[in-house]
Amino acid sequence: MEIVILPDAAACGELIASAMAELVERKPDALLGVATGSTPLPVYQALAAKVRGGSVDVSRARICQLDEYVGLPAGHPESYRSVVLREVVEPLGLTEESFFGPDGAAEDVAAEAIAYDRSLAAAGGVDLQLLGIGTDGHIGFNEPCSSLASRTRIKTLTRQTRLDNARFFDSLEEVPHHVITQGIGTILEARHLVLLATGEGKADAVAAAVEGPLSALVPASALQLHPHATVVVDEAAASGLK
Ligand code: F6R
Question: Hey, what CATH topology would domain 2-230 get?
Fold first, then answer.
């Protein structure tokens, strides 16, 4: 695992956007797995700036989701489909056709999760998966005690994660209890994992993931198993490292 410590979130965003741009240059139809939440926004903004500036052509790149809330109506502004369309697909000048994710409004969520794993494989697998990390060490929405071999499935969010995500909704009650998330085993199949963490609030989780034992109690520690994992942190998020 390589650890890159940079001064701030903007520098982290720029570095990862450059890695994505280089990947797309090498492999124009690369499949980029994107995370939602606040942390990755500087990455998407930096990549969109490169597209606008003409230094990279992402027109053949494909985008896929890491996870999705269950039960939000189609088109809800906080569904991850809406967020990825707004923050990634549209700013990169891509169309909805280049983007796919699990349907959180599916009638049979279990079947939808299995189908999503299959569609990732059918698409040739994820080339670069960007990950955030929860304050409890989750990746995707694999909360502590998720199996390290888990596949895409329905999960229940912990109270802490619902509290963390309440800022995107009008009230805590509106935050869904369930999600479809790529499993840890699914995530580990991506060719390159890039975990981004910024801010002091992530320092303990980063230290546990990087320097702690491999443990289902800290799902992000599963990156230790991956042959090509990069952890990009700002100085605040790195402050718990030895
Ligand atoms: C979101 C996701 C989550 C977030 C994590 C951190 O798609 O998979 O694991 O990456 O909850 O969220 P932020 O970046 O908002 O602190």
Answer: Rossmann fold (3.40.50)
Strands 153-156 and 178-181: antiparallel
Report domain extents, the chain.
2-230
pTM of the model: 0.97
Token pair of 91 as six digits: 């700013």
User: Which ligand 1 atom lies nearest to the CA of residue 131?
Assistant: 10
* Long-range CB contact pairs, 49-52, < 8 A, 24+: 49/17, 50/17, 50/18, 50/21, 51/91, 51/92, 51/93
Of all protein residues, the one whose alpha carbon is nearest to atom 2 of ligand 1 is 140
Please give the distance, rounded to the nearest whole angstrom, from the Cα atom of residue 205 to the centre of ligand 1: 12
Q: Whose CA is nearest to atom 4 of ligand 1?
A: 132
User: pLDDT digit string (tens) for 79-114?
Assistant: 999 999 999 999 999 999 999 999 999 999 999 999
